Amino acid sequence: MEPPLNVLLIGSGGREHALAWALSASPLLTKLYCAPGNPGIAAVAECVPISAMDFDGLLDFARGKAIDFVVVGPEQPLVAGLWDRFEAASIKALGPSMAGAVLEGSKGFVKDLCAGNGIPTAAYRRFREPGPAKDFARTLGLPVVIKADGLAAGKGVIIPETEADMVKAVDFMFEGGFGASGAEVVVEEFMDGEEASFFVLSDGENVLPLVGAQDHKRVFDGDKGPNTGGMGAYSPAPVFDDVVAQRTMDRIIRPTVAAMAARGTPYMGVLFAGLMIKDGEPKLIEYNCRFGDPECQVLMTRLKSDLLTALIAARDGQLAHLDLRWSDDAALTVVMAANGYPGDYAKGSAIRGIDAAETVEGVKVFHAGTALKDGRLVSNGGRVLNVTASAPSIAEAQRRAYEAVDKIDWPEGFCRRDIGWRAIDR
Ligand code: AMP
Ligand code: GLY
Question: For atom 2 of ligand 2, which residue has the closest CA?
Fold first, then answer.
């Protein structure tokens, strides 16, 4: 692909703002569009009001604007085959294909792939009926992990600590508690350890490691309360050191990419491995077929090379000779969410002070769930802002991020106050 390039980015969250910010700096870029985008993204791209699941609308738009390359942020359109639609129309896109996105779309598929290729993960079995699922769960002891097979928007996992809760969880899934994604259920062993997120780019054959990060999934300080999409992240993650990274590449990532190629469904795109690490030994929790949110925000903050060049190389099977440069500085992002998240929350409250926050050294505020109403910035989602700082250490990045958070005037929002604690406590 020869520059100049018209690029279409799909999505509307903080991950997409970070991607738009990185893409907009590319020397290859002529024009960046984002569908549907958000007010933060509008500063670096032209936003067009087409939803990420409106495939016909996206295709028409891409043809009309002579789009050369498409980057898809969220998983739902990939799992539903958006890459295949663009490529069938001769528009290049960063995958994966629908067949590749099964790595996120079916937990049972991934478990079977691990079993068939010696990839370390929790012991498991797949079930279509509650009785045998409960019997197997009893053999694993407590706590035990019960998962809906399909996409469940970051939910879909229950970790009961008592026999009664285990029975309830299995019944809940088979009764459609997580919708159709629970028609099949995976019961697996509980793994102990520290979690990390690791990202690679794959062109179907060659794999380019990116870097590791650590998310904070629980809503309250001290990792308490219900799971969320992620309340903050930082990179690098000390638990994911060079030895663990090498083991993850050798034992988990490369065998996966090779197995996908061998079955005739090569995996091209971003591959996100959720890992459990104990005593330096990584095991796979799950795969995602996209960047993490909010992990992407810290990755893009640390990336020094051109993102667009790397994504196009992944699409074109050209990753073998690509090398990326990363800042040695740490990056840390604090998610500001609407009061009530991840439960019910209100939209439409006024947000002020982002400019003031960005006067703090090394700070950039990504918009995750914002909108403009009568020219004023208001909240428009559960996770609303990602206050992101870079600094020579994680402790200093944390200090800068919270200094910036304190300049944001949004009484209807909250954040965790301890993002980065595992790294800082070490
Ligand atoms: P997932 O949606 O697969 O990322 O799971 C959500 C969260 O559940 C993960 O981030 C882990 O904290 C936890 N989890 C999932 N599977 C396991 C497991 N086998 N052992 C321990 N924790 C798990
Ligand atoms: N932050 C976790 C995810 O994006 O799935």
Answer: 292
pLDDT tens digit string along 262-312?
Answer: 999 999 999 999 999 999 999 999 999 999 999 999 999 999 999 999 999
Q: Ligand 1, atom 16: nearest CA belongs to which residue?
A: 285
For Cα atoms 354, 342, 403, give the angle at the middle one, nearest 5 degrees. 30
Spatial contact of 337 and 413, defined as CB atoms under 8 Å apart: yes
Pairwise CA distance, residues 243 & 280, whole Å: 8
Best mutation site among 111, 159, 192, 289 for ligand 1 pocket (most ligand atoms within 8 Å of CB): 159
- Residue 35: exposed, middle, or buried by beta-carbon count in 10 A (0-12, 13-18, 19+)? buried
DSSP structural state of residue 2: P
pLDDT for 149 equals 83
The domain that contains 59 carries what CATH number?
3.40.50.20
CA distances from 147 to 54, 162, 179, 260, 408 (A): 29, 16, 12, 23, 38
Tell me, yes or no, whether 123 lies in a domain.
no
Atom 5 of ligand 2, nearest CA residue: 292
User: For atom 3 of ligand 2, which residue has the closest CA?
Assistant: 292
Q: Which ligand is nearest to the CA of 274?
A: 1
CATH number for the domain that contains residue 146: 3.30.1490.20
Q: What is the pLDDT of residue 154?
A: 59
Nearest atom in ligand 2 to 294's CA: 1
218/314 same-domain check: yes
* Token digits of residue 249: 């590449």
Q: Which two tokens stand for residue 208?
A: 């380019």
Low-confidence ranges of the chain (pLDDT < 50): none
What is the maximal distance between C-alpha atoms in the chain?
61
Does the C-beta of 306 come closer than 6 Å to ligand 2? no
Gap from CA of 162 to ligand 2 centroid (Å): 27
Tell me, rounded to whole angstroms, the distance of Cα 101 from its chain centroid: 13
